[in-house]
Amino acid sequence: MNKENAVIIFESLASGIRLDIYRLLVKAGLDGRVAGDLAQELDLAPNKLSFHLKAMTHAGLTTVEQEGRYQRYRANIPVMLGVIAYLTEECCSGHPEECGELRKQSCCSPAVLPPVMTSEKDA
Asked: pTM of the prediction?
């Protein structure tokens, strides 16, 4: 992940509606969601939902697959994890072991946090 990609991703999420959409897609996991179901659950007009999904797909946050007359959207989980890694890779000046207490206070699952390196040989 580089700065330019991160900016595009953050810009694409700079909307409460898009955050709601993305969280629903993350929750759906590999099954994803059909656009019509998302529109109904979020009480959005289909054209408004389509506008937001297009922006998120363009940024790489979502993927879309045609299923007959429906479009199934999925969260691009590797991209999401890449953003998390980009934001946290320099945690505590590149010494994440120094912020162990902060990690404990985080609501993030340890599985998505960057690994804690305890010595130079780990680097």
From this structure: 0.78
Orientation of helix 16-28 relative to helix 35-42, angle to 10°:
130
Residue 50 CA, chain-centre distance (Å), reads 18
Mean pLDDT on 47-55: 95
Distances (CA, A) of 96 to 14, 49, 70: 28, 39, 44
pLDDT of residue 121: 46
Range with the poorest average pLDDT among 8-17, 74-83, 103-112: 103-112
- Residues 103 and 55: their CA atoms lie apart, in Å, by 32
Separation CA 110–CA 43 (nearest Å): 34
Domain spans, the chain: 3-76, 89-122
CATH number of 3-76: 1.10.10.10
Ordered DSSP codes for 56-74: HHHTTSEEEEEETTEEEEE
CA angle 71, 35, 5 (to 5 degrees): 85
CA 32 – CA 29 distance, rounded (Å): 6
